[in-house]
Amino acid sequence: MTLSIPFDNSYARLPASLFTRQSPQPVTAPELLAFNRALAADLGITEGDNAEMGRVFGGNAVPAGADPLAQLYAGHQFGNWNPQLGDGRAVLLGEVVAGGNRYDIQLKGSGRTPYSRGGDGRAWLGPVLREFVVSEAMHALGVPTTRALAAVATGDTIWRDDGPLPGAVLTRVAASHIRVGTFQVLAARGMTAELQALYDHVVDRHYPDVTSPAGLLDAVIARQAELIPHWMSVGFIHGVMNTDNTAISGETIDYGPCAFMDEYHPNTVFSSIDRQGRYAFSNQPDIIVWNMAQLATALVPLMPDADDAVKEFTAAIHGMGPMLQANWLRRFAAKIGIAAPKSEDLELVTSLLTLMAHGQSDFTNTFRALSGKAAVDQFTDRDAFRAWETRWRKRLETEDDPVRVMDAANPAFIPRNHRIEEMIAAAQTGDMMPFERLMNVLSRPYDDQPENADLTRPPTENERVMATFCGT
User: Fold this and answer.
1) How many beta carbons lie within 10 A of that of residue 322, not counting itself?
2) Does residue 42 have an active-site annotation?
3) Tens of pLDDT along 258-277?
4) Which of 99, 143, 294 is nearest to 231 (CA)?
5) DSSP string of 299-360, one letter each residue
6) Per-residue model confidence as pLDDT tens digits over 76-128
7) What is the pTM for the complete model shown?
8) Parallel, antiparallel, or unpaired for β 90-98 and 80-82?
9) Average pLDDT of 290-300?
10) How confident is the model at residue 471 (pLDDT cuts 50, 70, 90)?
């Protein structure tokens, strides 16, 4: 059977200033390492043999119907404006329509583009497999996210600071790759006609009920105000929440120095480049508000009166904080068995988190244990926990089936950093079994899997991963 992708491209019909047409650059010896058959079936993609899929998803063959291009965008990186970024190591092959929705098919690590800014445009195996595992784990956790379709080893050597590494290409699927920074670059350059065309495209593609730029801002705010509390409820830290890494669709995008917390602390940072803690776990709600303010600024040129737009947009941004707080409380209240929280439940949740921070409790295991009988074992101050537990159980007396609520909100399995590092190390020797095991276990994160209980264990002191890296 021959690989067939039913392309129906729309971004390529936007003004040419938004992208550069560019084919992926061939690699030496493409070898298919992983292919997401379930996702392919959902997208209407007909599978080919491994050799053909290695060539296509490695960048050596452009499939029929594709219209490959590298997208232009700009962005604020750690709060600093960069006037031109773009796909420096990625090529959008095209789009498919499935289930009434449109999806991008993008190769990441596919070679240099005009936006590479001195980089080699390539990716090495570790970050490719990390994004494959983590993005699919996020999907299984129910978090809106880009997906991973294929991973290909290239047979080429990639040089990074720590020496020679095996090259790889990831095929990423997204509702779109349009970012806050895509709007920013056009607004900054005064390209109002192109900005209007992008706005029309986004409304048609993602928000068909929107009738104005103000409505688009409100819609994107609503999705982001839902997304970030969802991240936090599973202990996820994005690590690099720049405006060029904030998707207009409301999906999680760009799994660079991301990580899931083991022991809980609100100021946790893993990203090696986040030296000031800008994107620490607890800062993520404030950062997304800041990012939405940058989107609002970029949309002002589309409004009939700039002064009125600033007033309206400012009110929308100020209203985002309460939305985030309400969604955060709903997510975290569910984690302690409360389906419809009241305002006073905030103190119950935050007092538990304070106990967890003081006792260096494992985030995932502590919440999962609440629906059993061993939660006290997660705390160094057992008496303090028992005092909290008394108040908590009194509160649950008015709740229907709190265990069911907790089990649906508290995963047993997350992609722990040390397990990902073990998987990458094994893959570098040609052993893909740890990768395949993680993919299987993490596809059912809310299920008790006693045979895989070792994957719930926090890292030992020697296994701790203290920093994560962009790497690609």
Assistant:
1) 10
2) no
3) 999 999 999 999 888 888 89
4) 143
5) HGGGSS-HHHHHHHHHHHHHTHHHHHHHHHHHHHHHHTT-SS--TTHHHHHHHHHHHHHHHT
6) 999 999 999 999 999 999 999 999 999 999 999 999 999 999 899 999 999 99
7) 0.97
8) unpaired
9) 98
10) low
CB atoms within 10 A of CB 8: 11
Q: What percent of the chain has pLDDT over 90?
A: 95
Tokens for 376, please give them: 């006290």
pLDDT for 1: 80
**pLDDT tens column, 53-64:** 999 999 999 999
Beta bridge partners of 101: 98
DSSP secondary structure letter of residue 117: T
Contacts of 378 (CB under 8 A, 6+ apart): 356, 359, 361, 362, 365, 366, 369, 385
* DSSP-derived 3-state class of residue 149: strand
The identity of residue 415, as a single letter, is: P
- pLDDT tens for 132-182 read 999 999 999 999 999 999 999 999 999 998 899 999 999 999 999 999 999
Q: Mean pLDDT across the stretch 216-244?
A: 98
- Chain centre distance of CA 375: 30
- pLDDT over 90 at 468, yes or no: no
H/E stretch holding 197 reads: helix 192-206
Burial 172-211, CB ≥16 within 10 A → b, else e? bbbbbbbbbbbbbbbbeeebeebbebbbebbbebbbeebe
**Tokens at 370, concatenated:** 């609440």
Provide the β-strand partners of residue 233: none
Considering the chain, what is the average pLDDT of its residues? 96
Q: What DSSP designation does 461 have?
A: G
Dihedral class, residue 100 (left if φ above 0, else alpha if ψ from -120 to 50, else beta): left
Considering the candidates 87, 104, 156, 244, report the single residue annotated as catalytic. 244
pLDDT cut 70: percent of the chain above it: 100
Contacts of 340 (CB under 8 A, 6+ apart): none
Gap between the Cα atoms of 381 and 388, Å rounded: 11
- Separation between Cα atoms, residue 209 and residue 212, nearest integer Å: 10
Rounded to whole angstroms, the Cα distance separating 169 from 16 reads 26
The contacts of residue 453 (CB under 8 Å, 6+ apart) are: none
Token pair in block for residue 29: 């010896």
SS3 of residue 381 by DSSP? coil
**What are the tokens at 444?**
């059912």
DSSP 45: P
d(Cα 438, Cα 440) in Å, to the nearest integer? 5
Give 151's strand partners. Answer: 34, 170
